[in-house]
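Quarterly update from the structural biology core.
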Amino acid sequence: MSSEKKPKAKALREMTPEERRELLNQLRAELVKLQTQRARGFVENPGRIRQVRRAIARILTIENQLKRKGAVR
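Predicted structure, tokenized:
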């Protein structure tokens, strides 16, 4: 799911924890690559950095919500 589209929260909630972690790792790797490109002065799509950062935050938020929901019960 490292395409240009942002992952929807509903789709992320339906994923297994392993799938979410794998996507998170892919997005983090992409972010490092984009930040390196930005530091060198060439980024093909500068808006993608923002998309990736928000997707990472979305996944982490869902992970935390699910952890809290499981801890309450």
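Helices lie at 9-14, 17-40, 47-72.
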